[in-house]
Amino acid sequence: MNLLKKLMVTTALVLFSQTAFSDIDSSGAGTVAETIDVDEYLYVRLAENDNWLAAAPMDISVGDKVNYSGGALMKDFYSRTLDQSFDEILFVMTLYVTEKAPTDPNALVAQAHEAAGALAAEPPKPGEIAPAPGGMTIAELFAGYSRLQGENVSVRGRVMKFSEDILGTNWVTLQDGSGIAPDNRLVARTDATVTIGDEVTVQGTIKTDVSLGTGYDYKVLLENATVAQ
Prior knowledge:
Helices cover 15% and strands 43% of the residues.
């Protein structure tokens, strides 16, 4: 991006901040979960809170840790370029990388899971969710996991966490009210998109004793899962 275009973007941000925006404490930090690069702006979604930032284009990658400051908040913002609406978006004057994303794919997975934070839905109570027809409960799956390697199973549960597009796939954490922590949560990898709090049936292939490095180990992982309501 040439100097003239940078000056034009900065000027636009200043003008917007004096008119259509709400003043807030606009300094902060986060981990980049998604970027959208257009001619005038770089749009950045933060993993910690799903907040969107807009700034002058620069070299930022998913997984980078960034600091931002000096902007203003715009509500119900519609981008004609993206044909996309944002409930809230923070136009910042300064955005810079404080730590680059790790290049090790396993470390990227671990970082994305860490950024996703705590479970975002209310866990189901014991017996609240009936097993899928012909399926297993999460407790049954963990109890017999050593003999289930490579088996195709169905599990019904509530979506507790959803991490999108990590190493080309989506990660879904389910609970069904059975099992004792930590063996009461099942993680499935899928191309499907789900909503936190929904009750779904996942069907896939069991993979056991999976290590993704940096402390992220799974006794059970459901691979290539399909999702049905």
